[in-house]
């Protein structure tokens, strides 16, 4: 049987969400490991004042593509951008482009989605559900289509503790919801949202569950697979360790902790941190594409792409390794020395939020105000608290995912494919991975140079000296205000000091006797 790379040779691939984190890694891997792939058609919209072509050109200059560029400097010739806005009718694809796509595409990877946890329900529904439906309709017209791979999330059914590789009944019939929301104004939808999402934490997981149902309903004439990754993190091995380009999920938390901004967060030390490296997800996705096209399973196969059941690691361990990495490889211009702690206790977390977040922020803003600058720290902390509030649900509990299909797929691969498209997370060394992940946030998200580490260390030493000076001044202040002014406080203070002195004298005397 042909290897995975051989199967992709000569194929035209359609990718949605190609400008996103996973989409880019998917393109890179296809171009590097399947060099004979015919063309990658990518649906892209203009954004933030940049045209579609400007965005694609910028994207191809990205460091992620360095290895591909080395192998084939003309790799951009294989990329065919198609203008598309997924929230528009017909995905806003021109009739000529529809004609091209329906005649030539062999496989579709649907990665596009809104992954914001605070997305308005109407927009999340439009992008995650309705555009999936529209893309499936387009796929039905593709004459040469062999497989359609839908990227979902392992948390689509996070209202369950144990999650099998099946499509669960939807919380509501998607079509009915789409019809109902159509006539409602935004404020009505906003009021109804908590009732609709029920025991799910946000509109993201809710609409991703509905999208799976739509995929199943439309699966009639198509060969479909669903990939459900858990928390997608930096790359493990490919194209190089630690590739990450956004603040989503744990990345923003790691950065905030490394900058010394985040000091406390509610998370369970013992809960499994189900991170999955992005290259693992992409290798599994490409292998699933091949398997779906070649073996044509009778039903929609769902692949839970998780690590917890195979090679578990816990949030407490993550905290330890993140802190130790950032102490050895500090981020530039840290606000304070990195020292974050997680706790599952609500009151303890509230206490430390007040003492370690709000108080320093107020103090810093006061200094900025006094020096004629604009206060900014409280604003940063308010945003951080909002983000943490949305993530806590996922860091305070754990889930069990069945990953039989991932194992089955691994067993279907030849030894060579298993090496080229490695998704065997049993080999993942977590401490090393977390170290590379943190360094990746420094290098690729914050664009900091590793050669500046000595200066960053020097800055941390300066912060330590400021802290010692501050603590000493605080002690003197407390002494002046509370002790020196009250006779009773003074008496208590002298009593405590004399007790300590007596204890020390006794200790010294007894240790001299024993010599
Ligand atoms: C040591 C500690 C150990 C800790 C252990 C505990 C860790 C727990 C982590 C748990 C993670 C669980 C994730 C669960 C994922 C489920 C998996 C998925 O399916 S889905 C995948 C997961 N999905 C998600 O993760 C989505 C979650 N995110 C959201 O929903 C939203 O971003 C938001 C509501 C949090 C903030 O909204 P909003 O306030 O409107 O802010 P915007 O977003 O609009 O960003 C504005 C600008 O700020 C920038 N920036 C952002 N963060 C940071 C930062 N930390 N710093 C600096 N900058 C930051 C940002 O780049 C942007 O810049 P620009 O582009 O303007 O230049
Ligand atoms: N990251 C994670 O931890 C996890 C992600 N997933 C799933 O993986 C998939 C990819 O996620 P990820 O790469 O992290 O997400 P990103 O937010 O990085 O990328 C989202 C992509 O969707 C595109 N998109 C969004 N809205 C539109 C629109 N209206 N029209 C056209 N394109 C649009 C974006 O394009 P543009 O650049 O123009 O905005 C971007 O390319 C999603 O389906 C997500 O649910 C699942 C589990 C975990």
Question: What would you note in describing this structure?
Answer:
The chain is of the alpha/beta class. Among the domains are: 4-238 and 274-311 and 399-414, Rossmann fold, CATH 3.40.50; 456-512, no CATH class. The protein has helices at 4-8, 21-33, 52-60, 66-71, 95-104, 121-140, 174-183, 186-197, 203-217, 250-258, 278-295, 315-328, 346-370, 377-395, 404-412, 415-420, 430-445, 453-483, 487-514, and strands at residues 12-16, 39-44, 79-83, 107-110, 147-151, 162-163, 224-229, 231-233, 264-266, 275-277, 301-305, 341-343, 400-401. The strands form 4 sheets. It has a 7-stranded parallel sheet with strand order 3-2-1-4-5-7-11, sandwiched between helices. Strands 6-13 form a two-stranded parallel ribbon. A two-stranded parallel sheet has the order 8-10. Helix 6 links the parallel strand 4 (107-110) and strand 5 (147-151). Helix 6 (121-140) runs parallel beside helix 9 (203-217), helix 10 (250-258) crosses helix 17 and helix 12 packs across helix 17. The chain starts with a helix and ends with a helix. The relative contact order is 0.11. It binds stearoyl-coenzyme A and NADPH dihydro-nicotinamide-adenine-dinucleotide phosphate. NADPH dihydro-nicotinamide-adenine-dinucleotide phosphate binds next to helix 2 and strand 8. This is Fatty acyl-CoA reductase.
